[in-house]
Amino acid sequence: MLFRSGVKYLKLFTENGKVSKVTVNMGAPIFEPDKIPVLTDNLPKDLNQVIDYPIIVGGKEYRTTCVSMGNPHSVVFVDDTDNFPLEKVGPLFEKHEFFPKRVNAEFVQIVNRKYAKMRVWERGSGETLACGTGTCASVVAAILNGLTDDEVTVKLLGGELIIKWDREENLIYMTGPAKVVFDGDIEV
Asked: How far apart are CA 177 and CA 87, in angstroms?
């Protein structure tokens, strides 16, 4: 089943008469530093994207790629997400002066060109099991850094999502599982 309306997009996949997966159009990534936003005072004036940019957080240098998916994301590639000290580093990224409206911080381990692992620190919430916009931003950042193909399966604490950046349309599509979490009746 496919629904289209303007740039909206929803595709339902069924198994045994029930929806098992859903693909949604997550929109276009935003790269302009002032629209993410990141502080541009120290950036070169002609810089129109923040890709693999050095940032000192907690006394250590990290390389960040910044993307907005309607909310700000700082994506950092790490060797091992399982042992990354997210509880310590995440809040330092969230409140770093480079991000005037705070930031969601994604820490991504590239397993291969089609598979990655990710942990996310969401501003105001801490570590969460998953973040759709963060996963989209992470895949875009991986593509911009030449680390993955245009479609990547990402393992998060809460499960796996498939993210595809259609660069011709400049739209991100996210596919994930659909599960019943509640049944009930309501009178209207």
From this structure: 27
Q: Is-contact 129 160, C-beta < 8 A?
A: no
Outline where 14-102 has alpha helix (H): 86-94
Given a cut of 70, is residue 3 above it in pLDDT? no
Q: What are the tens digits of pLDDT across the range 75-109?
A: 999 999 999 999 999 999 999 999 999 999 999 99
pTM of the model: 0.90
CA distance 181 to 43: 46
Contact 148, 139 (CB under 8 A): yes
CB 121 within 8 Å of CB 104: yes
- Three-state secondary structure string covering 77-143: ECCCCCCCCHHHHHHHHHCCCCCCCCCEEEEEEEEECCEEEEEEEECCCEEECCCHHHHHHHHHHHH
Q: Are 115 and 108 in contact (CB under 8 A)?
A: no
